[in-house]
Design a protein that fits this description.
Blueprint: H1 3-30, H2 40-49, H3 51-71, H4 76-79, H5 85-97, H6 104-121
C-alpha cells in the first residue's frame, strides 16, 4: 500500500467517524423523538436544520468521494477492513465528548481490532 492510498483510506475512515459523532451530537441536541405521522414534518425539519447533523451528512458526502479515490488505488479486501479503525476513534472520542463508558472489555475489543487491521494492512 502506498502512502497516498493509506492517507486516502485514513481520511475516509476519519470522515466516517466524524460523521457518526456529529450525528450523535445532533440527536443529543434535539433530544429523544418519535417518528409518527403527525410529527414527521416538524421532526424532519428539526433534523434537517440541526448544525451537527448537517456537518455529519457533509462528512459523509466528502467521505464518499475520498473513499472512491482510495478504492481506485487499493484492493477492497484491504481498504474495507480499515473502516474498523473508526470503531477505535469513535470509542475514544465518544468517551470524552459524550461521557460514554469505555470498559476493559471494550479496550480488549479495540486491541483485537488493531491487531486485525495490522494483519490485513501488512500483506506479504
Amino acid at each position: 500500500m502506498t502512502i497516498v492510498s493509506f492517507v486516502l483510506i485514513l481520511t475516509g475512515v476519519l470522515l466516517n467517524a466524524a460523521a457518526q459523532l456529529l450525528l450523535k451530537a445532533g440527536t443529543n441536541a434535539i433530544g429523544h423523538f418519535e417518528f409518527r405521522l403527525d410529527n414527521v414534518i416538524p421532526v424532519g425539519l428539526r433534523l434537517a436544520f440541526e448544525p451537527h447533523i448537517i456537518g455529519g451528512l457533509s462528512c459523509y458526502a466528502v467521505g464518499v468521494v475520498v473513499w472512491i479515490m482510495a478504492l481506485s488505488r487499493t484492493p477492497v479486501s484491504v481498504a474495507y477492513p480499515m473502516l474498523s479503525i473508526g470503531y477505535i476513534v469513535n470509542a475514544i472520542i465518544a468517551s470524552f465528548w459524550f461521557g460514554e463508558n469505555v470498559s476493559s472489555q471494550n479496550l480488549l475489543g479495540i486491541g483485537f481490532i488493531i491487531v486485525g487491521v495490522w494483519l490485513v494492512a501488512v500483506r506479504p
